[in-house]
Amino acid sequence: MLVLAGLVVAGLRFLPERKPTGTEEATGPPAATAVVTRTDLSTTRTVSGELGYGTPQELEGGAGTVTWLPKQGAVVKRGQPVYRRDDRPVPLFYGRTPLFRPLDRAGLVGRDVRVVVDNLRALGYRTGDQPLPGSPAEPAPLKVHAGDGVMTRSLIAAVKRWQTDHGVPATGVIAPGDVLVHSGKLRVAALIARPGRPSDAPLMAVTGTAKVVTVQLDAGDSGSVRRGDAVRVTLPDGDVAKAKVTSVGTTARAPEGGDGTEQPRTTVTVKLDDSGAVSRLTAAPVQVEVTGETRPDVLAVPVGALLALLEGGYAVQIAGGALVPVDTGLFADGRVEVSGPGLDEGVTVVTAS
After folding, report:
1. C-alpha to C-alpha distance for 284 and 238, rounded to whole angstroms
2. What is the extent of the structural domain holding 314?
3. Which residues, in sequence order, are bridge partners of residue 312?
4. What range does the record give for the signal peptide (predicted)?
5. Has residue 66 been placed in a domain?
6. For labelling, which of 24, 95, 255, 279 has a CA lying 20 to 30 Å from the CA of 353?
7. Residues 113 and 156 sit within 8 Å (Cβ to Cβ)
């Protein structure tokens, strides 16, 4: 019986030593059949993650004394005070370029000025027209580049109106430390400073306001993960939620508290497609199924269709009797990439039951 039917071990069928000729007849009825498909094959692995609001980052203030701080867990939006310095509110502006100089006169050009323009407009203040890129900035003969703003007289007047509404002297000047620039609205994860302490030091740790899953991947594994990759997240109650990779860290660090033998890890951030699935959770451990190696547009059969020949190599048996030698590629999710003479999409092969 072993010589005629082979032996099923670990999903593979073994045949005695012989060479497939492409014309051999089957000696026994097939247990089952499967169709050769053309598909994308991907390996997956499951790693531990943490549901929360992402990796906190520290915020520092300008020179002065802290006189008020928000509560832990508070959400701060554009125009709202992040803290008070010398009992003056320091509001939040959205942007990428922090204020690095006093904006104290007409004609100043730069991306820091653009932050002021964009935020005052978003807060409802009329700032007037801005010079177009390539044009000179008046009164200073500086060229305006894409992404720049210009301190015009209209903008200075808008700054004064905003300062009056904000309860600070209407000087028309905005200096570093008068506002805090961040990429968007923020959530206070933890307070570091307290009232009475110098404000030009770390004040608080903040995160974004959207719940995300943070995964620490070994640096050697993170290269196969790309922004936009689809992943599956298993929640504490066993439900599975669809998600996408939103960022992959570019810096690898050794785990904190380790003995120095662990591999450096990279932070991968994942956002759920449906945030409502975790609306009742603030933080929780989760499992994340991520994609590893991918082979697009390949022929694949169930692993049970492979015949492991004792003399080495593999074959598949065409339904009807012929044996076809095959080269194997990626194994994933119970299927294997194959190629061989006469093997094409739609061909029916014998597989183990």
Report:
1. 12
2. 2-41+296-351
3. none
4. none
5. no
6. 24
7. no
